Amino acid sequence: MIGGIVMSQSNLEKQEAKLKALNQKIKAEKNKIEQNLGKQIIKSVSLDYANLSNDRIKLLAK
């Protein structure tokens, strides 16, 4: 019985590691999409990156 519990725990740990890796991949893809979206918005309204302070970005976002 103890051997079965150890195997189950090992399998769960492997699945947990896979889940964490998948969640990191999803987060990276979301960040990539958000960055691309921001670049496209800036490009479409002909804004200059040099003139975009954090305050200006927040104002434009509103």
- What is the first-to-last residue Cα distance? 60 Å
Task: Label the structural class.
Answer: mainly alpha
| Largest sheet descriptor | none
List the uncertain runs. Answer: none
Q: Write down the secondary-structure element order.
A: HH
Q: How many domains make up the coordinates?
A: 1
| Tally of helical runs | 2
Mean pLDDT over the full residue set: 85
**Beta-strand share of residues:** under 5%
Q: Helix content range of the residues, please?
A: over 70%
Q: Radius of gyration, Cα only, in angstroms? A: 22 Å
> Which descriptor suits the 3D outline?
rod-shaped
Let me know the number of strands: 0
Walk me through the structure.
- This protein is mainly α.
- It has one domain (2-61).
- The chain is 82% helix and 0% strand.
- It is rod-shaped, with a radius of gyration of 22 Å.
- The model has no long low-confidence stretch (mean pLDDT 85).
Write the layout of secondary structure elements.
Elements: H1 2-44, H2 54-61
Using brief descriptors, characterize the structure shown:
62 residues; mainly alpha
Give a nutshell description of this structure:
It contains 2 helices and no strands. By secondary structure, it is mainly α. The chain has one domain.
